[in-house]
Amino acid sequence: MYSEGKYFQDPTRHSEDSEYKVKAIKRILIKYLANNNIEIKSYADVGCGSGTIVKLLARELKQVFTSLKVIKGFDVSPHVADIDDAIVDFYFEDFTKTNESFDLVTLNDVFEHVPDPVTFLKEVGKRSKHVVMHIPLEDSLSVNLRNLQNKKIKNPGHLVFLNINSAINLITFSGLKVVDYEYSKEALKAPSNNKTILQKVTYPFKALLLNLNPYLFSKLFGISIVVIAKGIDLNE
Fold first, then answer.
1. Spatial distance between the Cα atoms of 171 and 192, rounded to a whole number of angstroms
2. Separate counts of helices (H) and strands (E) for the chain
3. Which end of the chain has fewer CB atoms < 10 Å from its terminal CB, N or C?
4. For the sheet containing 128-137, what is the strand order?
5. Does residue 156 have a cis peptide bond before it, meaning omega lies within 30 degrees of 0?
6. Which residues of the chain have pLDDT under 50?
7. Partner residues linked to 181 by β-bridges
């Protein structure tokens, strides 16, 4: 579906929520890098999709890190070869089969699409000093009561359904070391979460609950998290 280009027949697919994902990532990532005096010289977005996230985040990072010179987007879908940008180079290539390595790699709603996410994350971790993941938590009451897993397997192609604990466990099983995470509160404002009348009517209640208790919100409705993990040191 991906390598044949079927998934991204519309090359802008999912790009409508990119701005909100970037805000969520930036909120935790910039603080973590600054607090730990970490310098970023190279950055790659793996499974970059439409390319919108890496374009936006790259520009944000370049404002903070003048050292950032190498920026790339990788995807196994052929549409990526046609994406052009002034500061990001795009590659129609499986990142886990390259000899590339980066200071920072981002995975934005990616590994839930992969049949063997542990092996995938392990291969990504071998090629990066830090991995930042935006992950949907869909093991929720709302999804389970409506039996939406069957629908989501077909579209948008989610193969694993996670909660906060299983997400962190899965990342740890891969050999990555989780160092920080935050719930993506920005996701509630994203266009995909404000399409229906019901979503718009319930927004004030959801916003209040999300701010008061994001864990409870995630168990009831589902939400995304942003996780920062250290990559796998092959010399250890």
1. 26
2. 9, 7
3. C
4. 89-92, 70-75, 42-46, 102-108, 128-137, 223-230, 177-183
5. yes
6. none
7. 227
